[in-house]
Structure formats: structure tokens, C-alpha cells
Amino acid sequence: MKLLVIVSSKKCCLKSELMQMNLYRKIRNRLNSHKRYKKRLARLEKCGKFKMNEIEGVKVVEVNDLNLGHIFDGDGSLIAEEIFNNDEYHFDIGDSAVVIDIGMNIGLASLYFAARGDVKDVYGFEPFKPTFDHAIFNFGINKKYSNKIHPHNYGLGNEDKELSFEYYSKAPGRMSTVKLLDEISHNPKYGTRQEVVQIRDAAKEITAIIEQHKDSRIVIKCDTEGSEMEIFESLDSKGILRNIEIIILEYHFSYDVGIVDILKRNGFVLFKQKTVSLETGDFGMIRAVKKTE
């Protein structure tokens, strides 16, 4: 009987210790999350343009008459800084433009374009449903401009296809439809889930947009974490790039060489900036403008 009591007591102690460890882990995670939030907020506040708010229980940043939600999830605050403080996607075309946002993510670039007076419409493409849902939330809290935005919950590629990937919610801005999760930077201590995504033929989708806006200048913004090569091969093969005026593109995995060749062949002058070199290749920006005849 005494042995049974001792064993039972040890089990209770062990259970109590496990509960305390789990509680400690939760508290530590919350503190770390709060520290990350404060650090990102401080970085945004240094830019001088951002103001904090809360809408429907979601932390929202106000900037340039826009509300930006979910930017503290993953790398959203860095993307907001690039777009709204660094003007990464600024262009001056001197005419009415239609923007095609390939790699819409949580909708920050689409809102940036839609808020411009010289942009008539924005067509956004985002294959990952959780990321797309955050974009829809952002459009919903910006009704002044959301009527310009036409979001699509599928990505673009060289053909119609269905793919399955692990989705990493801590870095939606780094999710790719051509690279596995192990090939991008992620923290394995955070869980992932399987997502099925739809990809459609880029040439077919963009041709339909061009046909609908024959009197407008067409601008492409592309940030797809690696599928840019197959997208531009598709557009090149169908002769669609002759209808595009400006391209603002982030390249990945050293795909810049092939894309530069395609753009030059289609009459663009371009500016290329390498941002970083990693084991997986070079990353950077390409800004291209159609030559005047």
C-alpha cells in the first residue's frame, strides 16, 4: 500500500511539473511574440507615417488613408515598410493604368496601387487561402478603394494545375509554389499545415485582362517567391509582353538571367538590383520599362 501511494504521489508530481512547464512555455511564447510585435512597431514608427489602431480585434496600422491589418503576422511589417516607406512599387506612367499584382500576399501592394488616382483597376492573384483571406480582410476595411481591386484565389504559372504544399503561417510572404518549405527560411518549432493551391495559365489570364482594358496602360508587379520564371516564359511564348508598359519584379533563386533575356527580347530597358546572395541563389529587383518607338 505504501509503495502504491509513493508511485501515485510521483505521478502527481510529474503531472504537476508538466503542467507548469506547459504554462511556462505559453507565457514565454506570449512574451516573445509581444517583444517581436513591439520591435516591429518601433521600426514602423521610426518611418514617421504609421499609426496604430484596432479593427474587429485585429491590430491595424493606418498609413496614407489606408488600414493595413495582419501586418504583424510573419513578415507583413517589413513588406509594409518596403511599400509605404521605401516606395518600392512607385511608378509615374503619366496616364491611366491597370495593375496586375502577381503574388498579392495579404493585399498591401494592391491597396497601395488602388489608392492611386492614376490606377483604374488592380487584378490580384494569391494561391494560398489563409494569405488570401487576410487580403480579403484588408480590402474589407478599405472600402474607399476596394471596389478597384479584383482578387483571385489562385496563382499564375505556365499551365493550369493543382499543387499541394506545407503552409507556414509565420511567413506568408515567403511561401512559394515552386520550392518546398525546407528550401525556404522557416523556424521548424512552429507548425505547418497542408494547403492545396490552384495555378492557372498566366498567358490566358493576363490576355483576358488586356482585352478588357485595351485603352489602358498595363503594369505588372510580380513577387511570387520563385515562379516568376515560368510566368514570364508563358507570357513570352504567347507574345503578351508586347502589351505591357512597366514591370516591377522581385526575382529569386538566380532566375534573373533568364528573365532579363526575355525582357530584352521583348523591347524593355531594365534596371536590376541584387539584394542578397544565399545558398539557394541570388535575390533582387528588376524594374523594366517598354522602349519608346
Can you characterise this structure?
This protein has helices at residues 2-47, 76-85, 108-114, 129-140, 143-146, 202-212, 228-237, 256-265, and strands at 51-55, 58-63, 66-69, 97-102, 119-125, 149-152, 155-157, 161-167, 193-201, 217-222, 246-251, 268-278, 281-290. It is of the alpha/beta class and 293 residues long. The protein has a domain at 75-160 and 197-290: Vaccinia Virus protein VP39 (Rossmann fold, 3-Layer(aba) Sandwich). It has a seven-stranded mixed β-sheet, sandwiched between helices. The chain has a three-stranded antiparallel β-sheet with strand order 1-2-3. A three-stranded mixed β-sheet has the order 7-9-8. Strand 1 and strand 2 form a beta hairpin. The protein is globular, with a radius of gyration of 23 Å.
Which tags fit this structure?
single chain, 293 residues, alpha/beta, Rossmann fold, seven-stranded mixed beta sheet, three-stranded antiparallel beta sheet, 13 strands, 38% helix, 29% strand
